[in-house]
Amino acid sequence: MIRAYLTRLFLGRMLAALIGLSAMLQILNLLENAGTIFAHGGFRDILHFIALQLPAIVSEMLPLSVLIGALMAFRRLAADLEVTTLRGAGMSLWQMVGALMPVCLVLCVLQFALQNEVAPKADRAFANWWAATIPPAADSPPPRIWLRAGSDVAAVDSVSTDGRTLRGVMVLERDGQGEISLRLDAPIAHFGPAGWVLQQVRVTRPEAARVQDVATMPWPQGPEPANMQALAWPTDSITLGRILAVLHGHWAGSQGLGYYRTELQAAFAALLSPMIMLLLAAPVLLAPPRSTGNTRATATGLALGLGFAASAGLLNAFGQSGALPPWLAGWMAALFFFAFACLRLSQADDSEA
């Protein structure tokens, strides 16, 4: 009975915060892009834009919504002296927070699914749709794409929207020692039933003085068209399966392996985010009702939650750049704030015992 009441109180406020934050971010995003969309489409394209952007926004706002929802629910319990009644019935702070753990675990799984599967796929669909619907400005050519394809290193000037035609292709083939053994330059490449075929190829061998011109040449190491689309129009998120495929050499990535190793660690560390936010908000239960102490405790919980999110992002950036080991960059913030939140809650519970 008590668990159902606390869950209802928390979920109502958490969902209200999630809807409000997501709507605000969606409106800001829409205001920034509505003019461009209407110039090349109509109202249906606006709805398509909103639908494809929504999963990433919800995934990004869910941990913060858990924090705000918990702070509001705990503040209400403290203000109405319901915490005093519950403690008088023998419930500790840990038991009150534990009553919310089942729904919190569900939110952890939901966050993991959104962040690592739903949002990346929606981002990819959005990037492909945007590239096909909104043509790039003529005065801003796309940057050259660098990638690893097997043992090859390649660069491409531009990719067609379906990913089956490449322009300005340069391929550097390497030997077993990692030295360049062959350079291929082709103005165009097409993907057909037999795979990639380079056309009008100029072949350069570092040990030879002359250059050879070949009409066509296969490129067996070339990535699939879908892979080229992902490289030409990168997204902010990538599915867990894609990360593992890059690390095992089954998918070409534009970043170093350290970047993807950090993303893998951070993906699993993010499972703890809703739980950490809930624990950081819990000391508000003991804040004095109807006083500045209640406001101060709420502000402290909010600041700690934002600090956790900011530090996790900063450490991930360090890991992606190679400044920190991937496991340390991915897990440091989550483990530190989890331990800190548990210690803080234990001290608050002992002080009121």
TrEMBL record:
It is found in: Cell membrane. GO terms for cellular component: ATP-binding cassette (ABC) transporter complex. This is LptF/LptG family permease. Pfam families: LptF_LptG (PF03739). Signal peptide: none annotated. It comes from the Bacteria. Keywords: Cell membrane, Membrane, Transmembrane, Transmembrane helix. It is a multi-pass membrane protein. The keyword Membrane applies. PANTHER family: LIPOPOLYSACCHARIDE EXPORT SYSTEM PERMEASE PROTEIN LPTG, SLR0882 PROTEIN-RELATED. One of its GO terms (biological process) is lipopolysaccharide transport.
